[in-house]
Design brief:
Elements (H helix, E strand, L loop, with lengths): L1 H49 L4 E8 L6 E2 L3 H6 L9 E4 L2 E9 L26 H30 L1 E5 L7 E3 L1 H6 L6 E5 L2 E2 L2 E2 L3 H7 L2 E6 L2 E6 L7 H6 L5 E3 L5 E4 L4 H5 L6 E5 L2 E2 L3 H17 L5 H7 L1 E7 L7 E6 L8 E3 L7 E3 L6 H19 L6 H6 L3 H6 L7 H20 L6 H14 L5 H35 L2
Parallel strand pairs: 1-3
Antiparallel strand pairs: 1-4, 2-3, 5-9, 5-19, 6-12, 7-8, 7-10, 10-11, 13-18, 14-15, 14-16, 16-17
């Protein structure tokens, strides 16, 4: 029938769109990581060359057993004879998990112990003073931080900065039951935390509130202080709350409808306004989330709940209007396993402000933004040790998911700068095999005056590689659970 053909066409379009989004995100991820890995390794390489230390290899990606490209390849040395006798081999590996520089006389992931059996040479890493070895190890992290600073400054110079002033959210925020228990009220606008102004609305508002002792809100034109719990708030728990801890008051208007979804089958179209769920009035999307969450919690808390009971609870009577309330439609919708009906939500339009920067002002502005991102990310590391924090760790799929769905150079560079900060912080962790592990041992050597034996260094490197392998396995398993299995319908 025409209806079936139309639905089939929508499915094909949906699949094509999803594949296009995955390809765009993958290309951005590859370009971003390739650039950052090269610059990170260039930091190690640069300081090594500065101190006249020999670097035998400079590789993008890892090359166990074979490589995709090398300056030692016969065809390349014929075209460029200079590289035939160059002390450094430049290449591209086939395992896209980073990159490396192999510094002569250093215990690293290559575990090349043959050179360490020979007498130390003046051009080797192990022959250098502690402070020189420190800079050679810290060079990668330093380069990542400088890269983020440079990108933020360049983005501000090129595009300026758009932001939402907090007080432009004139209708204020809607708060869930937990937030209202702390003292927040619907319509409140947070304007300060511990006496420091909150000038703009962004995702950082959760971090700001979770770390604050008191939050000042604007309530019906008056400033009111809301005192936070003495032990603070858990930001991860705040982010996971449904309905949201706080959200700009937004009418329950549909922006788009997914093909084949319950909403599409019921006839709900873009622009429709949800009026009621199971006979209860709905004004905002937070209201909708609250009603659905109650239904879902009933299922989860019911002992011996059968599949039939679960399916029955997923059925919801929804009332909506497609013409500003002149007429109303009603349908029984079967929500999916996540209790969603298959729509994207129309967000309210806020008055944004734009700020331009010149060549001089963009440099301190970029530094300020980089520092804000760095301090915020370091603050968030406190959650990594928790069970929820471990579940939130992701590998390349998670990293790729934060890139925009359509190619946008401004967003690409901002995301790249943030990932550069993440790489800097992660590499500074005192885990053997990471830069931070080497730096930690160098600091011990500087304090005690005793250098760890090469045997100890080799064992530390192997332990570090084992820890990294476990972390990568956890991260990838989280990606499988969060992205791959839902994509396959599990």
């Amino acid at each position: 029938t025409n209806s079936n053909r139309h639905t089939y066409t929508l499915y094909i379009y949906y699949i094509h769109t999803e594949m296009s989004i995955i390809l765009i995100k993958a290309l951005q991820l590859i370009l971003c990581l390739s650039l950052l890995v090269i610059l990170h390794e260039l930091g190690h390489f640069g300081f090594s060359k500065l101190f006249h230390v020999k670097v035998t290899r400079f590789y993008l990606f890892y090359n166990p057993y074979f490589h995709l490209f090398s300056t030692r390849d016969r065809w390349f040395t014929r075209l460029f004879p200079y590289f035939k006798d160059n002390e450094t081999e430049y290449g591209i590996g086939w395992v896209p998990l980073g990159g490396y520089v192999q510094i002569a006389g250093m215990v690293d992931e290559s575990m090349d112990t043959e050179q360490l059996k020979q007498p130390a040479q003046p051009w080797e890493f192990r022959s250098q003073k502690v402070w020189k070895r420190f800079f050679m190890m810290a060079g990668g992290v330093l380069m990542n931080l400088l890269t983020a600073w440079f990108i933020y400054s360049a983005v501000m110079l090129t595009w300026g900065r758009d932001y939402i002033p907090m007080q432009s959210i004139k209708q204020g925020f809607q708060y869930n039951e937990y937030a209202q228990g702390l003292g927040f009220r619907d319509g409140d606008i947070p304007i300060a935390a511990d006496g420091k102004d909150i000038p703009e609305y962004s995702g950082a508002i959760y971090r700001t509130i979770s770390n604050a002792e008191t939050v000042t809100v604007l309530r019906e034109g008056k400033e009111v202080e809301v005192r936070m719990p003495a032990d603070g708030l858990n930001m991860l728990e705040m982010l996971r709350m449904v309905p949201a801890f706080m959200a700009p008051i937004s009418a329950a208007v549909v922006d788009s409808v997914a093909p084949g979804s319950a909403a599409q089958k019921a006839g709900i179209q873009a622009g429709a306004r949800i009026l009621a769920v199971n006979g209860e009035q709905i004004n905002t999307w937070n209201d909708f989330d609250y009603k659905v969450t109650l239904r879902r919690q009933d299922v989860l808390s019911s002992e011996g709940c059968s599949h039939a009971d679960s399916m029955r609870m997923r059925k919801m009577m929804v009332v909506w209007s497609s013409d500003q309330g002149a007429t109303q439609d009603t349908a029984s919708l079967m929500l999916n396993e996540e209790y969603l009906m298959g729509v994207t939500r129309q967000l309210p339009e806020f008055d944004t402000e734009h700020q331009e920067y010149d060549l001089l002002s963009c440099i301190p502005a970029g530094l300020k933004r980089g520092w804000k991102q760095l301090s915020g990310y370091i603050n968030d590391l406190q959650y990594m040790a928790s069970a929820d924090g471990v579940k939130s760790v992701g590998s390349f799929i998670t990293i790729g998911s934060i890139f925009p769905s359509a190619w946008d150079w401004q967003q690409f560079w901002l995301t790249t700068a943030f990932i550069s900060i993440i790489l800097a912080v992660m590499n500074l962790l005192p885990i053997p095999a990471l830069d931070g592990g080497h730096i930690f041992l160098l600091m011990i050597e500087a304090i005690t005056g005793r250098k760890p034996s090469e045997k100890v260094m080799q064992w530390m490197e192997m332990i570090g590689l084992g820890i990294l392998a476990i972390l990568m396995l956890i991260a990838f398993s989280n990606d499988v659970r969060n992205f791959i299995l839902p994509l396959l319908g599990f």
